[in-house]
Amino acid sequence: MAIFEPQRRRLSELLDDIHAGAIQLPEFQRSYVWNRSRRYHLLDSMQKNYPVGTLLFLELSPRSPAAAFKRRLVSGVDELGPAGKAEPEELILDGQQRLTSLYRAFSRSVEEWTCLDVHALFKEVGLNEGVEIDFEKFLKGHRPTKSSEELLWNKNLLPLYLVMPSKRERPLIERLTEYRESLKENGQQDLADFVVKVLPSYLESFSGYELPVVSLSRDLTISAIAGIFTELNNTGQKLSAFDLCVAKFFSGGVHLRDLLEEAKEKVEHFGALDSDGTATLQFLAMLQTHEGKPISSKKAKLVDGLEAKFVKANWSTATSSIGNLGDLLEEIGFGSSKTLPYDAVIPGLALAVELLRRDKVKESEIRVALMRFIVGTGLAQRYTEGTDSKRESDVHEFREFVRDGSPPEHLMTPFNTASMMSTRLSGARFKSFLGLCNAESPKDLISNVALGLDHPKRAQAEIHHIFPKSHLDKVSSKKLAKDRPWELALNTMLLSPESNKWVSNDPPSAYVARTINHLVERENLSEDAAERRIRQALEMQMIDGAAFECMQKNDYDGFLMARAKAFALKLQTIGLQAQFYDEVPEDDS
Questions:
Q1: What is the pLDDT of residues 271-308, one digit of tens each?
Q2: Which residues contact 291 (CB under 8 A, 6 or more apart)?
Q3: pTM score, two decimals?
Q4: Which one of 1, 20, 391, 452 counts the least CB within 10 Å of its CB?
Q5: Residues 332, 371: contact at Cβ < 8 Å?
Q6: Which residue, 540, 525, 339, is CA-closest to 449?
Q7: 579: alpha, beta or left, given left = phi > 0 and alpha = psi -120 to 50?
């Protein structure tokens, strides 16, 4: 058989092979993820006899190179039945979501039956055959019952597994005939006629449906299969670099997916920084380059460049280094996905920190430099392009920065904090700003407890609008309100969930005064002491005296300017070149 010559195969036969375990999945395939809407749309296309795409299978034999792959049954197949002990004859390389959806739709032994609402379809088409319908409109999910007849007779729902019954099931026409008799007895003559005269015409496409299948030769090498996966990845198949490496390394005794799950479980902070394993593979690629065997850390190049032996020998170093970086990031306030400007910094900085530790550099020196490097990277929007080359240069540049005090170019570029007056609530600059607030362990406005974003040792914080939408909406012109002026980085602060509710939608002058009264009444503070405590809490989030005065006057424009100036001073204290200039640049964030 030619490798890429499609052969048409009946859906019923494919489903029988899946049920028997003759068709299975390679373990490196991702999990089944399609929702009900996508499943029903697929069935709608097939009911109309539309093509639903070619499937890609890999033939297997005991001596095939791919026999080394770990396998699993298609989701929904009974692992305790005969399929659980079966040796697969084919593996699904492309088409998992479609085939799993179809198996679940036409199988009795699943947690939810896919059913056709017969009465609703009858109301739509009456006794007319050939009316074009949106089949998916008439599909419903229903938990399995003791018998399909009970569901059909009582609720007029026909489980689709009856459309293509197994050899052990009675033919559909027998069940429909009995269904018709029950309807006639209940005086539903038109619906009874529809069931036997019209309904089958809307179901017949499934029993005869064929799908084109390309079968790859059982003699293909692991490298060739990985290459085919790479091509699939480039043309829309959503397989990550990690998935491809799982396939390549399995025969070398490296079970990447098991190693990844173990690292998530045992290495603190690792899972938060590398949920899918890609950063770890990029770390290994750069480590291999550092040790004199240059390869690219680009995702598309990892499967070709990395070797199973090297990955196996250095996996523990990679995962522990990423965990160590996570520990440092948490200490400086950037351990949350809400505050880390770019995930792309993780593998390069993890390797740089690991090499610095080997050089016996003090942890305190690494921590100070890391804060400056992370914030500067975000403000310079360093990773908007050229991510791969910059990630690789991070290793050298950060090490030189820590050891020799020579900052890289992107940390030397002056930053005008007036640009923050137009920076919205997303992107690297917003995260850098939020991280600096988080780094201070800011105190809550009312409870005075230390707050943190996704921080295990502090009270969980929420992001609050200092000048609420409802207030700015009222005082702004329609033109200004259309631009959503409240959605600015400088208009945010960290509060506890309780304080966030307390502040509510009041303007700053109102909730500041209300908070002062609350502290006076509940904590027996004088008004001066209460205001002083509020000022101190706000100063930890770059809201200085000038900005506080603007809050008391509900002066939003003045507040933004005052906080932008305070932000410039904060950046200077961590060693970045920053200044506030009166001219406000256009939003480039």
A1: 999 988 999 999 999 999 999 888 999 887 888 889 88
A2: none
A3: 0.68
A4: 1
A5: yes
A6: 540
A7: beta
